[in-house]
């Protein structure tokens, strides 16, 4: 079985092709939009995705050494994400499904991140930290769905770090030689400045931390502010994670999403896991950020269990939560 997956929820237009036999992932091609200045405008994202879509699909088919006619299903991320960006991926997927008479598989972007984590880390029954630019979620699978134990109440951890980096002039680019610019900045600091620390039960709030950090950047040494925002933000996540570990008794902690690449966060989580006799499993960098392979792989699992959608009903869902998605392949 071959599945072509399309990812277009935010800054990346990606296409992956997977099979149900080893090595599973045959290709994973993407093109990421990087604005010259400021944040991402939805209209610019849509224009970028529409411009690169054909070339990315062609390259993915070429790298997998298959024809579109060989593909069984077209999987597409229908949400959550940025509306105009989602629409480009959905239109491309519908077009391929209709033109080549393929079934369409709806995929939740977050489920894609989680399933590629299972595949690449070998985790069996983990507590999952889904950390990206748009999501900060602590979850695990229970009775047919991924249940949310804790999440951000406002902006995501990745968004906090990216926006702060951009507003103080450190980014773009956000990652240099595989390391986020806030880590590079923080490693030159060491004085802890008092910043808001907000954990409510299992949930975290990062918006106040962002505002206070931007104010602090005008008063204190920037390296010390970078160090402080990173330490406070990560410690908030660790506190919520530790509570979830105590509640669930899990002995694996799996980290997926773009923030999984943070070396400093990895060390903190490994120290925490050691205290709880647990093992940390982190998705490889090639699959940490948004990519088409994760959509294709989740689509393969779903398609094998009869999860399809008619083209006429393949609406985008910008606020589609992972705990709204039935997961029959893990039941």
Describe the structure.
Helix content is 40%, strand content 21%. With 331 residues, the protein is of the alpha/beta class. A hairpin with a 4-residue loop joins β1 (2-7) and β2. The two termini are 22 Å apart. The mean pLDDT is 95.
- Outline the low-pLDDT stretches: none
Write down the Rg: 20 Å
Give the overall shape: globular
Number of strands: 14
Short structural summary:
By secondary structure, this protein is α/β, with parallel strands linked by helices. It is built from nine helices and 14 strands.
Give descriptors for this structure:
331 residues, alpha/beta, five-stranded mixed sheet, 14 strands, 21% strand
Architecture blueprint of SSEs:
Blueprint: E1 2-7, E2 12-19, E3 25-32, H1 42-64, E4 73-79, H2 83-99, E5 103-108, H3 109-121, E6 127-131, E7 136-142, E8 145-151, H4 157-167, E9 175-176, E10 179-180, H5 181-186, E11 199-200, E12 203-204, H6 207-216, H7 222-248, E13 252-256, H8 263-275, E14 279-282, H9 292-304
Parallel strand pairs: 1-4, 4-5, 6-13, 13-14
Antiparallel strand pairs: 1-2, 2-3, 6-7, 7-8, 9-10, 11-12
Helix pairs in contact: 1-2, 3-9, 4-6, 6-7, 7-8
